[in-house]
Amino acid sequence: MKIKRQKQSKKTTSFYKYNFCFREPYQILIDGTFCQAALKNKIQIKEQLPKYLMGEVQLCTTNCALKELDTLAKNLYGAKLILQRFQMRKCKHTKDPVPASECLLSMLEETNPHHYFIASQDRELTTALKKIPGVPLLYIILNTMVLDKPSESSLKHVEAVQLGRFVTPTQQSSIQTRKEKEGLSKDRNDNRGKKRKRKSSNPNPLSCLKKKKKPMPQQPQKTDREKKKQSRHRKRKPAGGKEAAVSSNPTTA
């Protein structure tokens, strides 16, 4: 029977792990009714609860839960001593304490962002908790601690997320961080359309310098021999060869 209960608790905790991002150490908010039931049934909360959930836990309570035990009967003094050993979580009712059930509901807000487990025997509180998705409930029955199955609101919430109708706060934060890494954040898109004003600065001193004139390439000077070669002209020979030369000379006749 004990193995069967542990398998059921493991199945339920894994449901909250994968769908609502619960992580160890589990934070468990406890009220006076749960401590009174544990004292009556001789259950060691600090020893047995980590074994039952198969993980590290942080047992905590609020100031309102302690104040409520002060106002009730003296037979709850043992429950108060147990509750005082746990860590204190700050609530909004430091000046004006409220009933423990109301205080624990205010700690959960609308979506249980701090991932609290609730350990209580209060029936009004448990019925109100089932309307909030992602809230694991612990109670004591027949000398044993029991982790309740996920409520209808939690199951419907998970179904809506899987169908894409709803985005969880953790998914929203992961999407936002991914956008910032890829440069798709809203602030960057707003600044993209705006023109940046150039700062007035002094001119570059190198640009103020006058440009140096490049020297023209000088042609190599010609030597005297090259000049003589260019000035020499070839004489043309007269037509008719030697006969024309003899006829032209009168002394030969």
Task: Show the helix and strand layout.
Layout: H1 2-20, E1 26-30, H2 32-40, H3 45-53, E2 57-62, H4 63-71, H5 77-84, E3 87-89, H6 100-108, E4 116-119, H7 123-129, E5 137-141, E6 144-147, H8 152-162, H9 169-182, H10 186-192, H11 224-231, H12 241-248
Parallel strand pairs: 1-2, 1-4, 2-3, 4-5
Antiparallel strand pairs: 5-6
Task: Explain how this protein is built.
The protein is of the alpha/beta class and 253 residues long. 47% of the residues lie in helices and 11% in strands. A six-stranded mixed beta sheet has the order 3-2-1-4-5-6. A hairpin with a 2-residue loop joins strand 5 (137-141) and strand 6. Helix 2 (32-40) crosses helix 5. The radius of gyration is 49 Å and the shape is elongated. The model has no long low-confidence stretch (mean pLDDT 81).
Strand content: 5-15%
| Portion in helices | 40-55%
Instruction: List the strand order in the largest sheet.
Output: 3-2-1-4-5-6
Number of helices: 12
Distance between the termini: 162 Å
Backbone shape: elongated
What's the oligomerization state?
single chain
What is the average per-residue confidence, as pLDDT, rounded to a whole number? Answer: 81
Structural class: alpha/beta
Radius of gyration, Cα only, in angstroms? 49 Å
Count of strand segments: 6
- Spans of at least 5 consecutive residues whose pLDDT stays below 50 are none
Report on the biggest sheet. 6 strands, mixed
Secondary-structure element string: HEHHEHHEHEHEEHHHHH
